[in-house]
Specification:
2 copies of one chain form a homodimer. The first copy, chain A, contains 10 helices and 4 strands, in the order βααβαααααααββα. Chain A has 200 residues and is of the alpha+beta class. In chain A, helix 5 crosses helix 9.
Chain lengths: 200, 200
């Protein structure tokens, strides 16, 4: 019972951002590694027939309110960036490239990106902006820009997204603990209890 | 700060059923009355552009799994009834009629109905089945059947649903504490904390 926790997220998901502040600490507490797995939420929306939360009438207004409230509860700096949602493919591709080239930089990069986007509210949709963030955590800017344009890295992100869909992932954050699925920031408490008790 | 908690639910909502087992106890602990307000979730789905949770690919499979898991955690008998979802308009109308005629019977009736539906998995869509449940908690069967066919009672349910929509309700369960909205069973913990702390 010491398999890694799988943490699925999209770099454009504000709830994923909030979860990213708690997931590693939860894993640590229970002696579990946490594997971060960025996916393309747009593909999920298409498969399920849904749309980004903030685009729905009523539900969108509530979710913005709830995001701010949950961020305050977590003690996490948060704002919905102007022009949200931006494309975050360069970040997701870069993350998988780092997994092959410099794995220790994966999480620092992901955290820096999320912080720039939802913590500082920066527009991070351009490749250049993403490369700047990569550079800020010690990743070679030119290598990063070259890598994320490689067909192999683009395919990798697609394959990860398809594999997630096949596993039943339809939103973010979405985590698996020994095969048990938990969707949403508001299920992290149940996930913790699952780790503590071994399930019920 | 002792206003009643508003508890919006649909008699066809399994997550509403789960919340109904906790909401009064939460209110009691913090010295708050809880006003139960059945609504027609179908009108919400139409306004928001969504559909019943269980009808979505992937999301539907997960939600059935999550419902069972949460029910076990709450220690509540639960199953998704065969043929779910059934129409539950007679129950919602009867509930509001009881508010005018015999208010002390409202919650016992609602709990008996929910238990028959999601606890025992009975088909409760027919007026007769609903009247049987009403009779089981001491409500006159004939009076119940007559009342829920009155235009005034039908209009009352529509008015309650529209008022909920205007307040921003788009799903169930949905509760308000001093104007602060909380959506979903998995937000009951935040709601409790709100009651405890007065908000953050």
């Amino acid at each position: 019972m010491t398999a890694a926790i799988d943490f699925y997220f999209d770099f454009a998901s504000p709830y994923g951002y909030l979860a990213s502040h708690r997931i590693d600490e939860i894993g640590e507490r229970f002696g579990r590694a946490v594997t971060w797995r960025p996916i393309m939420l747009g593909a999920m929306f298409k498969a399920v027939g849904t749309a980004p939360l903030t685009t729905y009438p009523l539900k969108g207004v509530y979710s913005r309110h709830d995001l701010g409230r949950t961020a305050r509860l977590f003690g996490v700096e948060f704002g919905v960036p102007e022009g949200f949602p931006h494309g975050t493919l360069p970040a997701a591709r870069g993350f998988y490239w780092l997994g092959e080239s410099d794995a220790n930089k994966q999480k620092p990069f992901a955290k820096a990106f999320y912080h720039a986007y939802f913590g500082e509210g920066r527009n991070v949709s351009e490749m250049d902006a993403t490369a700047d963030i990569a550079a800020s955590v010690g990743i070679g800017r030119e290598a990063f820009i070259a890598a994320i344009q490689e067909p192999a890295i683009k395919d990798r992100l697609k394959a990860e997204t398809n594999a997630a869909l096949e596993r039943g992932v339809f939103g973010a954050p979405f985590i698996f603990i020994d095969g048990e699925p938990f969707w949403g920031v508001d299920h992290l408490d149940q996930a913790e209890r699952w780790l503590e008790t071994g399930g019920w």
